[in-house]
Description:
The chain is mainly alpha-helical and 128 residues long. It has one domain (5-125). Helix content is 78%, strand content 0%. It contains six helices and no strands. It has helices at 5-31, 40-51, 54-76, 79-85, 88-99, 107-125. The protein is globular, with a radius of gyration of 18 Å.
Amino acid sequence: MREGLGFILFLIALTSICDTINQLFLKSAINSLFSPSGNIREILRFIFKLLLVPRVWVSFLFSLISLCIWLFVLSQVDLSFAFSADSMHYIFIALASRFILKEKVCFKRWVGIILIVVGIMMVSVSVS
């Protein structure tokens, strides 16, 4: 394994964790409001109300942190590797959805997630 690769994988995992936290805060903020109907006026009112929810701003903060880490990662490794390894966010989102949001995740989705993990490991091992 190339020197520093473990650190890069850690940073990529950190971006995935930040993205997961970002999505959890967004979902929580959206769930705290009523969904608008198709009317443009109600949609604009909904967006304005959404921007007043502190969880949206916390979400933006995690998104910004993730972006900064991601830019550093991209400066260090090939995009094809970084983007493949960033697929970890699928795993984190599914786990967070299941255990934090109490959503149901079906068996087929878990199988797909396992296949993603295997693919990530194959890409990680293939780095020269």
